Q: What sequence folds into this?
């Protein structure tokens, strides 16, 4: 702080050239000017707006200040304060920044911890809601969240990926703003669009790892990142998938969630075969996807495992998965 | 803060880049005067140091990095282009991923002379070149045609202003404190396309200092 004051004092000397006025700046907001992260001054990165500097102009003896202009300066100050405080996220270093800004941290891990605490050791029937591909359909997405809040019977919500359009900072913040009103725990997969720009880093910071599992009511939920092209044609981590699905025979159901369905163009013939083989060998009950923007539920020729693909938010539908011991029931609810 | 400065009275003669105030000014000005040079039988007029930038900027935030620096010229009285380089990293802004940005700030003066002798309103268009693992001008060959729109270059219209203070210095004619509110094209598009995003949500504030060279 001493340094800040010193620098600002030097700055005020500069204005002395002017022979007009001297300024003392008692500044929080100005600390970034020194090339030091605001964090070092005890500010967290969640600060939305620039901390307003308080400026006290002390006029030199012979520089008279007209009443009109004094009032004008107060008026301008008030206008400035109202502009700065009414806008959120006014300070953005870059649309490609990650780890700075005003979104929650590791949301998936928090949801999983909460769910696993409330989970039963034995199987108990439950319902979950599935949504996906909300992109920037924010108006529909808001309604979707409201509709989900009205559903009391669901235990949690899974978003099947593509939460942004370009993977840039504020799109993630807006997603967070809308979903923080959700009453149910939310688990979010990464989609191909969320990989664009530096989206993968923002996702990691905001939700956690790309591949993760959840054990709930004696069911294993495997969340698998199968993005290929956006990683410069890198095969998905099938080894991890196989390990995550190998949980023994006592488990009631295994569900695999991945953004891109294995029959998409991204999957090579080998990858497609491998994915199908793993989910068949491990007796997966249902393979859930997004990406195509069109709803699909059923079996395909090349696999014994049924597939479920959620549509996009613009479809104005929520897919509800009712998990029973011996069967799965899929229904769709419009909003 | 700068708007606030605008509201405070500031008497005294405002002096701008074109009117140097330093005693060395005539000498320096001579360096800029066009001279004739005879090459073989042709006489050509040469303007020495024509390439030397007329101003430099140091800026905080504004969607081009934690701190950015740039140099530029003043052309046709109303137009001031500045080429900037912005830096953001773990130690320098706290981002978990490093971001380097090249940005061309096309700044236009909105009035013939500054308000209250010192405050000059401006607006313009910023062109940003971003660089990440997944930004591309042309899609890599493994994508189908037009799978994604290019995301390497982003445009950001901005408005703002600068408080100009003339100084007596060997190298500088003045310094300016400026602010700008810019809106990235992708954000602007969402503000138009959706009701949820409003014009209030899209601005990014940049604050900076300009140095005007002799």
A:
């Amino acid at each position: 702080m001493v340094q800040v004051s010193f620098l600002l004092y030097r700055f005020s000397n500069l204005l002395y050239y002017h022979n007009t006025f001297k300024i003392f700046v008692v500044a929080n907001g100005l600390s970034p000017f020194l090339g030091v992260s605001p964090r070092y001054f005890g500010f967290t990165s969640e600060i939305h707006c620039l901390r307003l500097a308080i400026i006290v102009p002390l006029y030199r003896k012979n520089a008279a200040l007209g009443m009109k202009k004094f009032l004008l300066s107060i008026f301008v100050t008030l206008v400035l304060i109202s502009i700065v405080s009414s806008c959120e996220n006014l300070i953005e270093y870059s649309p490609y920044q990650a780890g700075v800004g005003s979104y929650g941290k590791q949301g998936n891990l928090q949801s999983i911890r909460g769910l696993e605490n409330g989970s039963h050791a034995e199987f108990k029937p439950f319902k979950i809601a599935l949504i996906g591909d909300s992109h920037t359909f924010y108006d529909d997405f808001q309604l979707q969240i409201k509709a989900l809040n009205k559903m009391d019977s669901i235990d949690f919500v899974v978003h099947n990926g593509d939460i942004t359009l370009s993977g840039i900072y504020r799109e993630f913040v807006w997603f967070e703003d809308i979903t923080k009103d959700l009453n149910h725990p939310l688990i979010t997969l990464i989609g191909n669009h969320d990989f664009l720009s530096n989206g993968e880093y923002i996702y990691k910071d905001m939700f956690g790892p790309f591949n993760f599992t959840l054990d709930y009511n004696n069911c294993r939920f495997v969340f698998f990142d199968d993005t290929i092209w956006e990683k410069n044609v890198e095969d998905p981590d099938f080894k991890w998938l196989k390990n995550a699905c190998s949980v023994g025979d006592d488990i009631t159901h295994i569900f695999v969630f991945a953004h891109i369905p294995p029959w998409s163009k991204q999957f090579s013939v080998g990858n497609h075969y491998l994915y199908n083989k793993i989910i068949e060998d491990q007796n997966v009950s249902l393979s859930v996807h997004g990406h195509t923007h069109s709803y699909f539920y059923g079996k395909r020729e090349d696999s014994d495992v049924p597939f479920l693909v959620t549509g996009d938010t613009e479809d104005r539908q929520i897919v509800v998965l009712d998990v029973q011991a011996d069967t799965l029931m899929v229904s769709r609810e419009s909003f | 803060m700068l708007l606030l400065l605008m509201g405070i009275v500031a008497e005294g003669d405002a002096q701008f880049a074109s009117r140097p105030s330093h005693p060395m000014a005539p000498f320096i000005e001579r360096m800029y005067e066009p001279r004739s040079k005879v090459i073989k039988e042709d006489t050509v007029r040469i303007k020495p140091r024509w390439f030397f930038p007329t101003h430099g900027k140091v800026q905080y935030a504004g969607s081009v990095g934690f701190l950015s620096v740039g140099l530029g010229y003043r052309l046709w009285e109303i137009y001031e282009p500045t080429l900037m380089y912005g830096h953001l990293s773990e130690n320098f802004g706290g981002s978990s991923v490093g971001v380097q940005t090249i940005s061309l700030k096309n700044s236009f003066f909105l009035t013939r002379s500054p308000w209250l002798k010192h405050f000059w309103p401006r607006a313009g268009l910023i062109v940003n070149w971003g660089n990440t693992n997944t930004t591309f001008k042309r899609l890599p060959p493994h994508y189908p045609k037009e799978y994604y729109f290019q995301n390497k270059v982003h445009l950001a219209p901005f408005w703002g202003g600068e408080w100009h203070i003339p100084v007596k210095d060997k190298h500088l004619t003045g310094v300016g404190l400026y602010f700008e509110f810019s809106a990235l094209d992708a954000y602007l598009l969402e503000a138009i396309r959706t009701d949820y995003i409003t014009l209030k949500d899209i601005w990014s504030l940049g604050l900076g200092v300009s140095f005007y060279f002799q």
Remarks:
- Chain A touches chain B through 76 residues (CB under 8 Å).
